[in-house]
Amino acid sequence: MPTGRGATIRAAVSRGVGLPPSIEDLHLAAPGPDEVRVEVTACAVCHSDLSYLDGTWATEFPLVLGHEAAGRVLELGDEPTGDHPGGPAGNLAVGDPVVVTLVRTCGNCRACHRGHDVACTGDLALNDCSPLADADGNPIAQGLNVAGFAEQVVVHRSQVVRLPDDVDPLAASLLGCGVLTGSGAVTNTAGVAAGDAVVVVGCGGVGTGALQAARIVGADPIVAVDPSPDKRASALGFGATHAVDPVAEDVGAAITSATGGRLADHVLVTTGAPAALDGAIDLLAPMGNLVIVGMAGDDVTMEVAPSWLAAANKSILGSKMGTIRVADDVPALIGHHRDGRLDLQGMVSTTHGLDDIAEAFDEAWRGDVLRTVVLPNGEPAPC
Ligand SMILES: [Zn+2]
Ligand SMILES: [Zn+2]
To answer: Checking phi first, is residue 366 left (phi over 0); if not, alpha (psi -120 to 50) or beta?
Structure first.
C-alpha cells in the first residue's frame, strides 16, 4: 500500500460520452511499491483518447484520459518488489526526465517472460485500483493506464523510461504511444527489411511514425495513402516516396506503378476507418503482410477470401502498440531521434495548456494536426 499522503492535482476529467472535459482538483494517491509519481511536462492527444470520448469504444466514466506523455520523476514508491530484471525504470531517481507509456508489465507472467509486453496478463495494483479520486472521494478512472491530462500521474515503473537530459520533452512525449506504435508495426510486427515495398494507409501520428521507421530501415518504395492533402504533403516530408489520394486516385494502379508491378510487401493500415481496409489485401505481393495497426470500432468487421491468403502466402497480422517491448523500443527510438533520423519536433503541430484542452481535442477530431500536445504545467523550460 502507498505510504505517503498523495497530492492534490489539477486534471481534465471526462464525465461522459460527448461531454467536454472539466478541469478539477483531484486527489492523486502516493506511489505504491513499484510505482512512480511523475510531473507531466507534455501529453499528446492520441486518437484512442477520442475513441473513448466519442463512444466508439466503451469505457467507464468519469475518467482522465491522456497516455502519450513525458515528464519528470517526483517520487518513487517503496523499494521495488517486482521482478523486472533489466526493466526500463530500474535505476530511476527523483528529478529524472522520463517518457511515460500506457504499456504496463508485471515482468512475471508468461507474456512478459516471452517479451510480449503488450500481452501482459499480470495482476498489478494499478490495474484494480485507480490512484485518482475527486473532491468528494469518488474514484476517477485512470484512462489508458496513465491519465496524463493532469499535472501529475502515478504509474507503474514498467511504464517509464529514462530520457537523456538533452531531449525535448514535447518531442519525447510522442514516444509514449503514437510513434512507438507506428514504428513498432514496421520493425516488430511486419519485420520490414531494406528494399521492401511498404504502403502506409493513414498518415496521422501513428502513420507518420510508420513512415519514418520504414525510411530508417531502408524500405523502398514507401507509399503513403491518405485522403487529406495536408497529410499527403507531410508524409512526403517524413519518408514517403509516393503519396496517393484514395478518393481521387486508383490506389491499386498507383501501388502497381510505384512498385514496378510487384506490389507491396507490407500494407500497414494505421487508421480505424473501415474504408481503409477495402481492397488492402489486393495491394499485397505474394508473401506480403497486411498489418492492422489502427483500432477500428468494436462493430467493424472485414471479409477476406481465405483461398487468396493460402494461394499467395499472404498474412494478416494484428499489431497492438507495434508489438513493442518498452525497454528495447523506446530507447532505440530515442537513439534515432538524437541521431537526427527520427523527427519528432516536426510532428508537434500545436500545444495547449490544460485549461484549453477542449481546443486540443477539437483540433485532433478535425484531423488537421499530426499531434497536438497538452502542457499541464505550462510551457516547459528549454532543455
Ligand atoms: Zn495512443
Ligand atoms: Zn506480465
So the answer is: alpha
Cα gap 156→130, rounded to integer Å: 12
At 272, the pLDDT band (50, 70, 90 cuts) reads: confident
How far is the C-alpha of 234 from the C-alpha of 369, rounded, in Å?
Answer: 10
CATH of 7-176+343-375, one of 3.40.50.300, 2.60.40.1080, 3.90.180.10, 1.10.760.10: 3.90.180.10
- Threshold 0.90, pTM exceeds: yes
Helix (H, G, I), strand (E, B) or coil at 133: strand
Relative to the alpha carbon of 110, which ligand is closest? 2
Question: Could you tell me what percent of the chain has a pLDDT over 70?
Answer: 95
Give 144 Cα–ligand 2 centroid separation in angstroms: 17
- The torsion region of residue 202 among left (phi > 0), alpha (psi -120 to 50) and beta comes to left
pLDDT of 117-160, one tens digit each? 999 999 999 999 999 999 999 999 999 999 999 999 999 999 99
Ligand nearest to the CA of 67: 1
Cα of 318 to ligand 2 centre, how many Å? 19
